[in-house]
Amino acid sequence: MTTLVGQAENLADAAFKDIPIIDLANISSSDPNVQRALAAEVRDACINVGFFYVRNHGILQETIDSTLESAKEFFALPLETKMQIENKKTPNFKGYSPLLSGNNNPDNAGDLQEGFEFGWEPITPSTTDVHDKNGVMAGANIWPSELPELRANALQY
To answer: Which alpha helices (H) appear in 76-157, and where do they start and end?
Structure first.
């Protein structure tokens, strides 16, 4: 019997030729066969390639464009400004992740990427929202005061 880890190790040496494109048109289907087929596609892409594109996700192009523009504006801010909301300063790891702060390869000094971590929150806060408040990343997001539109755009996305 081959384990998932064993399968992944065997496939790690195999090159892929195309990035999978997964169609989400039926993501809300109540048909268990459709749900299983979609889950199998996602699983296969994650195990065999590591990532994938999606289509028919339902996000308006205008929303994508405004969110991307807000992200570009955020990452163009001075480092000192971004470091004011560094994710290591929050108990739930939300906020800015500076260059070299992550390290996926223990032989490296850090990853050549920066990021911004946030979680689900309602666009308009409400006292009646029912949402899981437990877990490592539970709790309030932290947003840069210099770019109030980043919050609205990211949450709309």
So the answer is: 79-83, 148-156
SS3 23: strand
Look up tokens 């539970």; give the residue. Answer: 138
Q: Give the predicted TM-score (pTM) of the model.
A: 0.72
Where are the extended beta strands (E) located within the chain? 21-23, 53-55, 95-97, 115-117
Q: Tell me how far apart the alpha carbons of residues 150 and 157 are, in angstroms, rounded to a whole number.
A: 10
Q: Which pairing describes strands 53-55 and 95-97: parallel, antiparallel, or unpaired?
A: unpaired
| Least confident interval from 45-59, 76-90, 137-151 | 137-151
Residue from 110, 87, 85, 90 nearest 99 by CA: 110
| Model pLDDT, residue 138 | 73
User: What does the H/E/C string look like for 47-58?
Assistant: HHCCCCEEECCC
- Crossing angle for the helix pair 32-48 and 4-12, nearest 10 degrees? 50
| % of residues, the chain, pLDDT over 70 | 82
